[in-house]
Amino acid sequence: MGRYTGPVCRLCRRAGQKLYLKGEKCYTPKCPVERRPYPPGQHGTQRRRRLSDRGLQLQEKQKARYIYGLMEQQFQRFFAEAKRQKGVTGENLVKLLESRLDNVVYRLGFADSRRQARQIVRHGHIAVNGRKVDIPSALVRPGDVVGWTARGQKTALFEMAKEQAGSRTLPSWLELDAAAMTGRVTGEPKPEEIGVPFNTASIVEYYSR
Fold first, then answer.
1. How does pLDDT run across 15-68, given as a tens digit for each residue?
2. Using CA atoms, how far apart are residues 83 and 3, in angstroms rounded to an integer?
3. With CB atoms 3.0 to 4.6 Å apart as the test, which of 43, 92, 136, 200 could cross-link to 82 if both were Cys?
């Protein structure tokens, strides 16, 4: 199955909560989840049926996929790596997802959403440690510096990001130099600080069957 390319607001309505996939629109009264708080489709206004335990686990897994913009096989690879590592699998999974380059670009305020951040990376506008990286799934590590390429600095997106630099609250494992428009990874992501709207334990149970 290919990547979902339809209206992302439908994914939030399907999940029954805000997943913050549309950037600033999610914080305004125009958010479809607030205007139409029921599932999309012809029968969306009908009462939601009660899900089984397996259905609830699937729902949590889908939320995580939607938030980080991953296809199923990609998500499975991240889960397999999280399970291989020492420690709590759910926490390892969140750390890996948060360490993706597109997510870091979003967290630094260089993009309004992860989807936009993914496009910025793919178009070759982002550099890690001074070298262009156009792979959104590339993982950053403590000590890495994320900035804009010379080409990226000539775009309207760069100017918009520069105007808004510093307006977003950063997690403790990231530092932003608003003047230079660069960010530094100072440590590992902290799951308790991220506040992800999905249950990692349910995801672990889903893949454990």
1. 555 555 555 555 555 555 555 555 665 554 555 567 788 888 998 999 899 889
2. 24
3. 92
CB 67 within 8 A of CB 198: yes
| Contact residues for 93 (Cβ-Cβ < 8 A; gap 6+) | 64, 78, 79, 82, 200, 203, 204
- Chain position carrying tokens 């889903």: 206
List the structure tokens of 170. 């950063």
Q: Of 43, 45, 62, 46, which is closest to residue 54 (Cα–Cα)?
A: 62
* Contacts of 168 by beta carbon, 8 Å cutoff, 6+ apart: 107, 108, 109
Q: Which two tokens stand for residue 22?
A: 């549309």
How many angstroms separate the CA atoms of 163 and 109, rounded?
10
Cβ neighbour number for residue 119 with a 10 Å cutoff: 15
Give the angle subtended at the CA of 139 by the CAs of 203 and 1, to the nearest 5°. Answer: 50
- Residue 189, pLDDT > 70, answer yes
Of the two residues 13 and 131, the one the predictor is more confident about is: 131
When the pLDDT of each residue in the chain is averaged and rounded to a whole number, the result is 84
pLDDT-based confidence at 191, cuts 50/70/90?
A: confident
Dig out the tokens for 121 from the structure. Answer: 């990376």
Give the pair of three-digit tokens for residue 7: 């209206």
How far apart (Å, rounded) are the C-alpha atoms in residues 192 and 52? 27
158: which residues sit within 8 A by CB, 6+ positions away? 125, 148, 152, 181
